[in-house]
Amino acid sequence: MARSASVDKSRIAAFSVFADLPGTELNELAGAMSEVEVKAGAKVITLDDYGTAIYFIEQGDADVLTDGGEASQALGPGDTFGEIALLLTGQRTASVVARARQCGFSRSPVRTSSASGHVYPSSNARCAGLASSAPLDRRTGFS
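The structure corresponding to this sequence follows.
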């Protein structure tokens, strides 16, 4: 998995959950994200591992695997995964494998304020909202 330094705020605003954030919050969020490129067949996250990032898919496809290794959900551009471990449980609730070359970005770790100490509740609340709306059922493999 290759990572690069920064993500432009327009790429973040393309995700509906962040589309209407003020520019200052988009800039802070962009500063907390790294671009990630994943090769087809690579495991992005693994069931029961400690979670350190939320992933946002811009291009490519991935499969969410159940604890039995079966694909239970397809993910693609505009989808996110990994938020439950990062924001709620600390542990991954499923594995995710790239089906096709994937390009996106991750936020790791979730910060509650900027480097200057300014708190940005909107972006943090929206990341938390991703986790609260995601199913937690291990049998289905949803993360």
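The domain at 2-133 is CATH 2.60.120.10 (Jelly Rolls).
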